[in-house]
Amino acid sequence: MTQTCVTHNETETEALGGRIARQSDGLSAIALSGDLGAGKTALVRGLARALGSADAVTSPTYAIVNEYRAKRKICHFDLYRLPGGDALWEIGWDDYLASGALCAAEWSGVAPELFPPDTLWVDIEKTGEQTRSFVLRWPEGVGPC
Ligand SMILES: Nc1ncnc2c1ncn2[C@@H]1O[C@H](COP(=O)(O)OP(=O)(O)O)[C@@H](O)[C@H]1O
Ligand SMILES: [Mg+2]
């Protein structure tokens, strides 16, 4: 099912991440796309907070993956600097998914074929200085939020 949400500031985007968290038990992954500054990291921050994490949430641009302690572990990827899907495979993407962690990935368009069926697809568009439009594509049987 597809759902569209509009936010008007970063706090609202974090709150949307919190709403997604409440529906996240049925998800293995969250695939995020949108330009720099779209709010991908803000959404993951709200998600992590809602799942009880106190860890700092920032784009793992150089590290590729950050792990956050939470009720359910969150692995936060940034695929921007990855050359392609093979590289994601090499860093153990499959093991991260199999571990039961919730895997949230910025710049998912680098390797869309590697996301499992129970992925929430989030496409973000900057529609103004502060407004963002989120298109959420939920897998069968999960969501909306
Ligand atoms: N509606 C909004 N939602 C999220 N961020 C917003 C919004 N409006 C303005 N911003 C600003 O845009 C930036 C988003 O940053 P970030 O979440 O790191 O984006 P990304 O990870 O997509 O590059 C922040 O500086 C934030 O203050
Ligand atoms: Mg980011």
Q: How would you characterize this protein structure?
A:
With 145 residues, the chain is α/β, with parallel strands linked by helices. It has one domain: Rossmann fold, CATH 3.40.50.300. It contains four helices and seven strands, in the order E-H-E-H-E-E-H-H-E-E-E. The protein has a seven-stranded mixed sheet with strand order 1-7-6-2-5-4-3, with helices on one face. Helix 1 packs across helix 2. The longest helix is centred in the N-terminal third of the chain and has 13 residues. The protein starts with a strand and ends in an 8-residue tail after the last strand. The mean pLDDT is 96. The structure holds adenosine-5'-diphosphate and magnesium ion. Adenosine-5'-diphosphate binds next to helix 1 and helix 2. The site of magnesium ion (MG) has 4 residues, from helix 2.
